Amino acid sequence: MNVQAISESDFAAISQFFYAESGIRLGMNKRSLVCGRLAPRLKVLQLENFGAYLRFITTQGNHLERQLAVDLLTTNETYFFREQRHFDFLQELLDQGWPGHIPQIWSAACSSGEEPYSIAMLMAEYFGDKLWQVDASDLSNRMLATAAQGLYPLSRAREVPSSLLRKYCLKGLGQFDGYLLVDDCLRQRLSLHAHNLMEPVRRKKKYDLIFLRNVLIYFDAAGKKTIINHLLEVLQPDGFLFVGHSESLNGITDALVSVRPAVYRLAQA
Ligand SMILES: C[S@@+](CC[C@H](N)C(=O)[O-])C[C@H]1O[C@@H](n2cnc3c(N)ncnc32)[C@H](O)[C@@H]1O
Q: 40-95 pLDDT, tens per residue?
């Protein structure tokens, strides 16, 4: 099948489906992305065209394929210690003994886990065997499964300081050559769960730090507002919200002010 063969109406319908599931709008410029990512599923399921695929995933009982379609359409790029300045800031806060207790941290679009594991390495350095954990969530169950496994190509770990790499990662051998496995002592500290940022946060917990990095960029202004309003419900009054360095909350909320590049705090804090 020619992967370019998605009709305008099938693309619009798939785009609508994805918007309803994730809150993300796929513009017409994403037509070849949709083709490229979903075409292999059409082949496996021996379906004629994208319209048939959409009917398949919206048929009751086919929720696993529906979830897979959403997974395939999300962009999951990430790596360890991405945007180092945030980790420097976290280290600064921990050095100062902020916030006076073990911080509650949530990586709210954690993708395959490199972000929460980077946080966990720093937390382990400061809090060792004490009672701490890092909450981590994503829309994609496939990404959460990778995070739970903690097995990554070494290329994702270029930014990990060598002392942390030696301490918290095991180098793969034999069939795992070229991979690293995050040590179990960190894997058990991640509390992974599926969460759609467009929905209210069900957990009653309040967070000192929320990492919301490199995900807002995929949403329109209304989507960004919805997400930020949900997160404001669970951010501690003196807590910090991190977004990606290419993202901004200008025009999205007055409740948060920028205190450093890509770091926000409640305006009245
Ligand atoms: C580009 S990754 C960012 C990963 C990490 N935060 C970083 O900065 O490296 C974006 C992640 O957002 C997730 N995502 C997209 N829409 C979402 C939604 N509505 N709710 C929760 N996660 C979502 C995707 O599945 C993807 O794993």
A: 999 999 999 999 999 999 999 999 999 999 999 999 999 999 999 999 999 999 99
* Same-domain check for residues 132 and 251: yes
pLDDT digits (tens, 9 = 90+) for 175-212: 999 999 999 999 999 999 999 999 999 988 999 999 99
In-domain check, residue 254: yes
- Domain end, chosen from 73, 101, 124, is at 73
Going from the Cα of 215 to the center of ligand 1, the distance in angstroms, rounded, reads 5
Task: Name residues whose C-beta falls within 8 Å of residue 155's C-beta, 6 or more positions apart in sequence.
Answer: none
Structural domain of 95: 84-266
Asked if 142 is an active-site residue, the reply is no
Q: Is 10 a catalytic residue?
A: no
Q: Among the options 37, 41, 66, 142, which is catalytic?
A: 37
13 and 118 in a common domain = no
CA distance linking residue 218 with residue 221, whole number of Å: 10
